[in-house]
Amino acid sequence: MKRMDIRLPLGLMFAVVGLLLVGYGLFGDPAIYARSLGLNINLWWGLAMAAFGALMLWLSRR
Amino acid sequence: MKLGLVDWAIMATYFVFVLGIGFALRRFMKTTSDFFLSGRSIPAWVAGLAFISANLGAQEVMGMAASGAKYGIMTSHFYWIGAIPAMVFLAVFMMPFYYGSRARSVPEYLKLRFDEKTRGLNAITFALMTVLSSGISMYAMGLLLNLLLGWSFDVSIWLCALIVLLYITMGGLTSAIYNEVLQFFMIVFGFLPLVLLGLHDVGGWSGLRAGLEHVATARGFAAGAWSQSWAHMGSPSENPMGVEWFGMAMGLGFVLSFGYWCTDFLTIQRAMASESMSAARRAPLIAAFPKMLFPFLVILPGMLAIVLNQRGLAAGGFALPVKADGTLNYDMTVPLMLAHYFPQGMLGVGVTALIASFMAGMAGNVTAFNTVFTYDIYQAYLRRGASDEHYLRVGRVATVGGIGAAVAAAYLATRFNNIMDMLQLVFAFVNAPLFATFLLGMFWKRTTGHGAFAGLVAGTAAAAVHHGLTLTFGSLPGIKGGWLAVVHAYPSEMAQNFWTAIWAWSTCFVVTILVSLVTRPRAEAELRGLVYSLTERLRSDDEPWWRRPAVLGVVVLTLALGLNLVFR
């Protein structure tokens, strides 16, 4: 019996967390980015995490 | 540090997946082999990431950053000479025996190669040690979450124990391995932005180096003492670690590192769960690539913190807390750096990564414990010859029992901290000589069971005696050593540890050889597949070059050498 491929939950989780961050980065209060040196770290790192999640999902579906 | 709604959502998402993985794997756990060995079906890259992740507990993450602040880039010795060579040795030379002998655990290999008493000694000390370190890790987590987020110590511990209990009893080793892969990427994604923001803040690598030179000269060391890993190791007084190059190379680079990476079932279990011999040998080598780069992820935050600390709060820097005696408290470096740079959102990722690594560290210990308990203690001494379903049930009960004992240890630590320190010290004595036993057992067919056992006992005793006879500058006889008499004083605790290990290893090595020479060896036919000279060489000529262990091993060692040279 074929067991679940780890890349499926891995990809899903990073996609969800990444999108949460992107959403917060887009719609949250921009004043909080003073501590991250003025960079909207939630938006950009959220995109990176979501992209990683998507890549894993694609690999698990291939 | 205040978590917002988004942080809670991120944390909740992570735990839904952790438990979901356990739940999804539940129906595949039919035999003990599924539960304890993942049915030997894990692909090499997954086993490799779990291998490295099982070692990347929160104490490692936080401890390495603390060392990075305290000692600078010298901390990377724990990776570039203190791990990589041993991982390559394990993969190329030792994995064929662990995986090929069909032993289900490291103690069971000792039983096959030597005898019952050697296995018993190793199994029992290992089982106690995993429960203890699991408890200490829980204790540290409870304290941290209480301090940082104001969570109740009791709730943190019980909740964490419950989550680990659920996903291990449901999904066994596979569950632990999958969650370790999840945790690995959480740590990478949670810490990388911290390093990037910090580096940007101090003005890149050259800014960091200039800052570290101030730090070093302000403490009375040569300018490069925090930013060069080898240049100041001629004598212990030249570097903040207080260790000279020989003690470092022999004590850490050889005895401690090979003793840990080549004999510790906690990590080796991940490789032994691989789908084939070739995958089992590749797992530690695949693990070596990220391991080599971890200093940039876990040590660099500490180095950045000390530079920002030097800059001072007024100039937009950062303040490490000060202990009662006026020295800096480095232990909280990581959480404080997270709070310094991360806004809500990323903060949730960072905090979740920390909690995840506490939990994965616990789960690693628990899966190693339940396997050794079931196969090497219960099946070996309490009840032989029962059905496989029976042992599977015992494994689940052992999981509950192990976690219960770990919780008890965590509470014990809150009240009797010195008992914990003492137990850890005793286990360090037991571990120090182990690699000599495995080395002789695997590569010298004449080694006997009596020799191995006598060597282990003598090596442990030598470690205790060495510790009892030496002390570090400025400490009182007691838990820091010198409880017999003080015949030598080391400049630092680290130097003392390294030399304790060297003495233990050498004693075990010599005693094992001497006793083996006067006792009767096993028949050669019984040792096939267990000893190097009596085992057919594995051929990997038909594999592409990038899958051959020897080739990968050379690549890994060359890269590690390169890193040592670049940051010398």
List the helices and strands and how they pair.
The complex is a heterodimer of chains A (62) and B (568).
Chain A: H1 7-27, H2 41-61
Helix pairs in contact in A: 1-2
Chain B: H1 5-25, H2 32-37, H3 44-53, H4 58-71, H5 77-80, H6 84-100, H7 106-113, H8 116-149, H9 153-202, H10 204-218, H11 245-261, H12 265-272, H13 277-311, H14 333-341, H15 346-382, H16 388-415, H17 417-431, H18 434-443, H19 449-469, E1 470-472, E2 488-490, H20 493-518, H21 549-566
Parallel strand pairs in B: 1-2
Helix pairs in contact in B: 1-9, 1-15, 3-9, 3-12, 3-13, 4-13, 6-11, 6-13, 6-21, 7-8, 8-9, 8-15, 8-16, 8-17, 9-10, 9-13, 9-15, 9-16, 10-13, 11-20, 12-15, 13-21, 15-16, 16-17, 17-19, 18-19, 18-20, 19-20
Structure in a nutshell:
The complex is a heterodimer of chains A (62) and B (568). Chain A is an all-alpha fold and 62 residues long. Chain A has 2 helices and no strands.
What does this structure look like?
The complex is a heterodimer of chains A (62) and B (568). Chain A is 68% helix and 0% strand. By secondary structure, chain A is an all-alpha fold. The longest helix of chain A is centred in the first third of the chain and has 21 residues, at 7-27. Chain B is mainly alpha-helical and 568 residues long. Chain B has two domains: 5-415 and 537-566, Up-down Bundle (Sodium/glucose cotransporter); 432-533, no CATH class. In chain B, strands 1-2 form a two-stranded parallel ribbon. Chain B is globular. The two termini of chain B are 37 Å apart. The model of chain B has no long low-confidence stretch (mean pLDDT 91). Classes of the chains: A mainly alpha (62), B mainly alpha (568). Chains A and B meet through α1 and α2 of A and α1 and α9 of B.
